[in-house]
Amino acid sequence: MHYDYRAGKKRIDEILDSGMAVIEKNRLPKNDELTFDNSYLSWISAIFIDIRESTELMARDDQEYVAKIVRCFTSELIEILRGEDNLREIGIRGDCVYAVYTTPKKRDIDNVFDLAVWCNTYLNMLNAVLRKRGLDTLRAGIGLGVGHDHVIKAGRKGVDINAHVWMGDAVSTASKLSGYGQKDHRQRIWMSSLFYNNIIDIEVERNSEAKSWFSKSSGEPHGCYQCNVVKTLMNDWINGGMD
Questions:
Q1: Residue 89 CB coordination number (10 Å)
Q2: What does pTM read for this prediction?
């Protein structure tokens, strides 16, 4: 391998000397409008679903079993998360499935919460199937974050190696909170206070008892909310044996 450090120095200077248009937009545009010469500031929401104790799972001797479990976990979560028109990025980071959405309105943020509820119920289904087969069940956490955040296209200009970098609260908060959801299987969904404040009125409009679904964290992370809301019809079907 030979790295042309002189050319590298030139590229760094070009980036630092170039103009960068920071565009504030209510609704984050789709990928083709984001270039190496601009960046966007917009309201976005993120969801992260992360397996607990994945290191131990990945290290198991039966790698065929591990592969099947990871595929079950990732494939259906992606199926749930990919359908929204507001989707701006979806992917897998190790054992974590994540998605980022443009959410200019409270209703859009609430739609992301609805996706989290579907994911939560799906995890119940997956565990019920595993239990029926005498296999180990999974513990996972779901994190939700929202923020008025900055996104750039990063990587190597002129080379087909690039990605979005989400700078701000939404993605980092969702990723962090998914770890807390892993630890408490009774309250699998965790969200920032800003996320909660944007959805609670809508949820109460639908169901007057909605506030009772959520509890506020008294310790770390301070001020966050957690819940274990599920889709009732699907969950009843799961509990009824899935026949």
A1: 17
A2: 0.90
* 79-101 per-position pLDDT tens digit: 999 988 999 999 998 789 999 99
Q: Indicate whether 153 pLDDT > 70.
A: yes
The topology under which CATH files domain 17-239 is: Alpha-Beta Plaits (3.30.70)
Those residues with Cβ within 8 angstroms of residue 150's Cβ, 6 or more apart along the chain or in another chain: 22, 39, 40, 41, 166, 167, 168
Report the pLDDT value the prediction gives residue 223, as an integer from 0 to 100: 84
Q: What residues does 147 pair with on adjacent strands?
A: 44
Asked if 121 and 235 touch (Cβ cutoff 8 Å), the reply is yes
User: Quick check: 224 and 191 in contact, CB under 8 A?
Assistant: yes
d(CA 102, CA 189): 20
* Residues 6 or more apart in contact with residue 110 via CB below 8 angstroms: 198, 199, 202, 203
Where along the chain do its domains lie? 17-239
Element (H, E) at 92: strand 87-93
For the beta carbon of residue 71, count every other beta carbon within 10 angstroms. Answer: 10
Residues 6 or more apart in contact with residue 31 via CB below 8 angstroms: 88, 164
Q: How confident is the model at residue 30 (pLDDT cuts 50, 70, 90)?
A: confident
Which one, of 92, 111, 94, lies nearest residue 102 by Cα?
111
